């Protein structure tokens, strides 16, 4: 068994890890120096200290810049995590003032929820925190493991602080998380205006129609298939698309119909010349909640973002 050499953290300069991360991203000493407001010689000197610290060349010079060694590539992800974590700690330690904060928030949500809530949220962010920015990550339910916990990987991203908040269709969350209900979501049948199905939206007509399905991996099976199978019925999927916004475009220019979230269709029906009718099948509505860890809610910035999200995406906004 290999014995690890003890490391005295007090002797490790955190700036070296920031420098390593920047050089790895840029692949060029001069460009990294420019980003860090240092001279190329200062970066080269720090790289020498890093080589000694990790007992590896780390970066090999080439005519076009530097190429990371296998050890450097191995260190890339954990060092990036350390730099990000420290950045969050420092940000949370400083008083949060929305008008002057240049903080970057990261939110994760499924495609349909992103399309439904991000416009009002980003507008509010620009108004109250004009120097802040926001990143959005597309979250999808996991295919592996129990169907009872399809959003486990997404909750892990929240717990690891890879994202500040997640917006998910969850009725309950584990005790270490805090959730705020935004709205209840159910599905309707959407189609172009004037479509014949809208005049007679029966279950029989539903099964005979040509359907579009939103499926990230192209699998032509969704929750509708399960509901129909209980009745010994099936439908015909003629097209799958990976996003809900793409589905709206396809519906506007075809005779297909699609089962889509009510809130999404209500928000974009006029823009895409669509109409909707009730789904001819009963299904329990989804509870859409904003989720953060209880620990992260002690961060004034995350708590502020949660409040904004509840105010801008709450149920009363659907009718406004």
Describe what you observe in this structure.
By secondary structure, the protein is an alpha/beta fold. It folds into three domains: 11-93, Orthogonal Bundle (Arc Repressor Mutant, subunit A), CATH 1.10.10.10; 104-181 and 286-319, Periplasmic binding protein-like II (D-Maltodextrin-Binding Protein, domain 2), CATH 3.40.190; 187-278, D-Maltodextrin-Binding Protein, domain 2. It contains eleven helices and twelve strands. A hairpin with a 2-residue loop joins β1 and β2 (65-68). α1 crosses α2 (29-36), α1 (14-26) packs across α3 and α1 (14-26) crosses α4. The longest helix has 24 residues, at 70-93. It is elongated. The termini are far apart.
**Strand numbers in spatial order across the main sheet:** 4-3-5-12-6
Strand percentage: 15-25%
- CATH fold-level label of the largest domain: D-Maltodextrin-Binding Protein, domain 2
Which overall shape is indicated by the principal axes computed on the Cα atoms?
elongated
Structural classification: alpha/beta
CATH homologous superfamily designation of the largest domain: Periplasmic binding protein-like II
How would you state the average pLDDT, rounded?
Answer: 88
Order of helices and strands: HHHEEHEHEHEEEHEHEHEHEEH
Which helices and strands appear, and what pairs or packs with what?
Layout lengths: L13 H13 L2 H8 L3 H15 L4 E4 L2 E4 L1 H24 L10 E6 L1 H18 L4 E6 L13 H8 L5 E5 L7 E9 L1 E6 L10 H6 L1 E5 L8 H7 L6 E6 L2 H9 L5 E4 H11 L1 E5 L7 E8 L6 H14 L7
Parallel strand pairs: 3-4, 3-5, 8-9
Antiparallel strand pairs: 1-2, 5-12, 6-12, 7-10, 7-11
């Amino acid at each position: 068994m290999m014995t690890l050499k003890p490391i005295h953290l007090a002797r490790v300069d955190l700036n070296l890890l920031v420098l390593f991360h920047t050089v790895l991203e840029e692949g060029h000493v001069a460009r990294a120096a420019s980003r860090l407001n240092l001279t190329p010689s200062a970066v080269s000197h720090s790289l020498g200290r890093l080589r000694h610290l990790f007992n590896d060349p780390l970066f090999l010079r080439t005519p076009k810049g530097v190429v990371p060694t296998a050890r450097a590539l191995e260190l890339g992800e954990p060092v990036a995590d350390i730099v990000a974590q420290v950045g969050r700690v420092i940000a949370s330690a400083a008083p949060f003032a929305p008008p002057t904060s240049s903080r970057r928030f990261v939110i994760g949500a499924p495609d349909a929820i992103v399309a439904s809530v991000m416009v009002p949220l980003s507008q509010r962010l620009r108004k109250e925190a004009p120097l802040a920015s926001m990143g959005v990550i597309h979250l999808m339910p996991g295919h592996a493991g129990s169907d009872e916990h399809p959003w486990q990987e997404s909750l892990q991203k929240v717990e690891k602080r890879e994202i500040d908040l997640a917006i998910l269709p969850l009725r309950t969350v584990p005790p270490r998380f805090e959730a705020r209900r935004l709205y209840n979501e159910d599905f309707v049948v959407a189609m172009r205006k004037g479509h014949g199905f809208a005049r007679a939206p029966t279950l029989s007509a539903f099964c005979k129609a040509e359907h579009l399905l939103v499926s990230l991996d192209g699998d032509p099976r969704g929750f509708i298939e399960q509901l129909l199978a209980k009745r010994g019925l099936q439908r015909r999927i003629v097209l799958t698309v990976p996003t809900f916004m793409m589905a709206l475009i396809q519906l506007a220019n075809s005779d297909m119909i699609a089962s889509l979230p009510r809130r999404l269709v209500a928000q974009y029906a006029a823009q895409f010349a669509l109409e909707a009718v009730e789904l001819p099948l009963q299904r329990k509505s989804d509870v859409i909640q904003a989720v953060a860890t209880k620990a992260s809610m002690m961060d004034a910035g995350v708590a502020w973002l949660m409040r904004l999200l509840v105010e801008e995406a709450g149920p009363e906004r659907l009718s406004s």
